[in-house]
Design brief:
The protein has helices spanning 11-20, 25-33, 39-45, 49-58, 84-90, 92-114, 118-121, 126-138, 154-164, 181-189, 225-242, and strands at 63-67, 73-77, 197-203, 206-212. By secondary structure, the protein is mainly alpha-helical. Helix 9 packs across helix 11 (225-242). It is elongated. It starts with 10 loop residues before the first helix and ends in a 5-residue tail after the last helix.
């Protein structure tokens, strides 16, 4: 699990940025074929602009890529590569993507080194949860869920990240932690979802403000075997999500 903001490890966020910057599909697929699919993978693979410029000149300029009928990425050499002078002018969209990746990666490392606030470290968004689910299903760890009643809540995933991430307590988590997404959504719509509380604390002799995660709201007393089975299923799915390196 990562203690950084999930955005840096999100392939969804990376793809959205590529689309926003008008990165050519062929160039984007080429990046994926080189295992560059997140801000973090791009930012740390090419830590300096010169590294990325060399990659553009030595690799990207000379190839193209597409997806075949099976969805696999096929990379091939261009029959006639453009001149560097022409290509470098058209590569601005890729430079924008690298610049954003570099900034996101740098901020995450700085936040980690400084000790990021707990609410930022453990924040799990719906997009991140969906991505983690897809990775867990693809890896064969869990079957595809049939509904939100079979998905762990954002609260559950956040609590697992806080407990098992770097500097985590690695403590036993009680039943109340394991809540399905459907139940969490119903509580939110009813305005009954426990809210995080703002608190002031001292760090490095300075007063800082942060948020304290709301209390757990799942089952406290398990007497029914059906309830126990549901909790164990959510726990199993949540732990399968936790095996993903992006969490």
């Amino acid at each position: 699990m990562s203690a950084s903001n999930p955005q840096g490890k999100s392939s969804v966020a990376f793809k959205k940025a590529a689309i926003a910057f008008d990165v050519h599909e062929s160039d984007y697929l080429g990046l994926l074929s080189d295992n560059v699919s997140t801000y973090e993978s791009m930012g740390f693979r090419f830590p300096e602009r010169e590294d990325f410029e060399l990659y553009l000149k030595k690799t990207v300029m000379h190839r193209a890529a597409y997806r075949d009928d099976k969805g696999e990425i096929v990379v091939f050499n261009r029959p006639k590569a453009p001149s560097w002078d022409n290509f470098r002018e058209d590569a601005g969209c890729l430079r924008k993507l690298w610049t954003l990746s570099h900034q996101v990666s740098k901020k995450e490392v700085e936040a980690l080194a400084a000790g990021a606030d707990e609410d930022q470290k453990n924040k799990i968004t719906m997009a991140t949860a969906q991505e983690l689910e897809e990775e867990a299903v693809r890896a064969g760890g869990i079957p595809s869920p049939g509904s939100d009643r079979e998905r762990p809540s954002l609260h559950t995933l956040g609590r697992l990240q806080a407990n098992f991430g770097p500097n985590g307590a690695y403590m036993h988590l009680s039943w109340e932690v394991y809540v399905d997404l459907d139940y969490e959504g119903r509580l939110r719509r009813q305005g009954r979802l426990p809210k995080d509380k703002t608190e002031i604390f001292i760090k490095d002799d300075n007063l800082k403000m942060g948020t304290k995660q709301g209390v757990d709201f799942g089952y406290t007393d398990v007497k029914d075997i059906t309830v126990l089975r549901e909790i164990m299923e959510i726990r199993g799915r949540a732990m399968a999500h936790a095996q993903d390196p992006g969490l």
